[in-house]
Amino acid sequence: MRRRADAVPRGVYLGTPVYVERAEGTVIEDVDGNCFIDLAGGIGCLNIGHRPPAVVEAIRSQADRYMHTCFQVLPYESYVRLAERLNQLVPGNFPKKTFLVNSGAEAVENAVKIARAYTRRPAIIAFEDAFHGRTMMTLSLTSKTHPYKEGFEPFPGDVYRIPYAYCYRCSYSLKYPDCEVYCAKHLEDTFKRVVAAESVAAVIAEPVLGEGGFVNPPPEFFKIIVDICHRHGILFIADEVQTGFGRTGALFACERYGIEPDLLAAAKSLGGGLPIGAVTGRAEVMDAPGPGGLGGTFGGNPVCCEAALAVLDTFDRNDLFALANQLGDRFQQCARKWQAQWPQIGDVRGLGAMQAMEFVKSRESREPAADEVKQIIQHCYEHGLIVLSAGTYGNVIRLLMPLNIEDNQFEEALSVLESAIASVLGAGRELALHGA
Ligand SMILES: Cc1ncc(COP(=O)(O)O)c(C=O)c1O
Q: What b/e string do you get for 322-347 counting C-beta neighbours within 10 Å, with b at 16 or more?
């Protein structure tokens, strides 16, 4: 830790002071021989766990042949095969093309470039509480100010922000379903009061907020947004960097909402632990930038392509979506019980295995309880469980377990989480009723 402080800038966040020795499946062993159940998955990159054997084998065998040529200099077949697979798998009953990159932010950056090249319009509409990455354009799209944006201004312009369907903290103080999803319909009003529809290239959204707190909008929300977009010749970009590859109980969360995005950005769990991202979209849209307009030295590296193909094979061979939904149901069962016990658990929500709890000081005030969340997470790692916070207010605990986590490991994780909550919040309902 001392050497880290001397060698690495303080801006690089430190989640847990645990140095990793090895990892397998859901378990991490540290350099001192301690074992941890990992419900963070390197921030959602390990939907099929650490070192899935098929992925390790694919990486080894590719490393034995060649590791880098740059696809634009000397192409290789695995890039094309991965593009073909993603074109088939991404929702949308139309011809598609795929461009491969290194990360989620790079996928989002390129989705924006492609949308602008196709529409010849400048503006992008993003949502409150969105997270799209840390490069300058993606920071412009990202909502949370501290610590992501503060001090790094100015950002690229022509980005406009509208409220997300965050029902627990509705920006319009309305209640679903009586609201009739006003927040989605309000997009039309944005074209009159904020930015002309004719100037908008794309609306970008995470189908479920990731860093923003695992907020899953009501079922109609995205259909309304996509319809409005298409009425005005605006593209809809789905940022599935965190929701992708089975996390929500379908390969892509767009399927859960019954929508077909014009462009979809993917990364994280696509690589099974290696860095790779993708933009997949309507063929005519993807072809808008001219030859040489898209590229990058390492994008779609052959080792990463083989890893991603092995990840997709794993989804083909196993019903991981059913497992995701079972995990989600089991968590909801526990978390609802905890919510009855601890009034500080204001909201329990999620889609498939993308599950979270939002902590508040009291149910009435809904004041975020970020310190309590920090303490719960600390208690967890001191007791062998790695979990992550989320949310604009840092008061959400989110779960990103492998979809193939073993039952006994998940039960153990839930029981550590329960004792962490009890240790920080006290015995629960009775104490709370007595004002403790
Ligand atoms: C929804 C979403 N988009 C984009 C990104 C950025 O991805 P990366 O960190 O790979 O650049 C993230 C990362 O957490 C994300 O959750």
A: ebbbbbbebbeebbeebbebbbbbbb
Q: pTM here?
A: 0.97
Query: Ligand 1 pocket, 142 CB below 6 A?
Result: no
Rounded Cα gap, residues 301 and 121, in angstroms: 31
* pLDDT tens-digit series, residues 161-220: 999 999 999 999 999 999 999 999 999 999 999 999 999 999 999 999 999 999 999 999
Tokens of 136: 């300058």
Residue 134 has pLDDT above 80, yes or no: yes
CA-CA-CA-CA dihedral for 363, 367, 369, 371, to nearest 10: -150
Whether the CB-CB separation of 182 and 174 falls below 8 Å is answered with: yes
Nearest CA to ligand 1 atom 3: 132
pLDDT tens readout for residues 76-102: 999 999 999 999 999 999 999 999 999
Ligand 1 contacts CB of residue 271 (under 6 A): no
| 354 within ligand 1 shell (Cβ under 6 A) | no
The answer, yes or no, to whether any atom of ligand 1 lies below 6 A from the CB of 349, is no
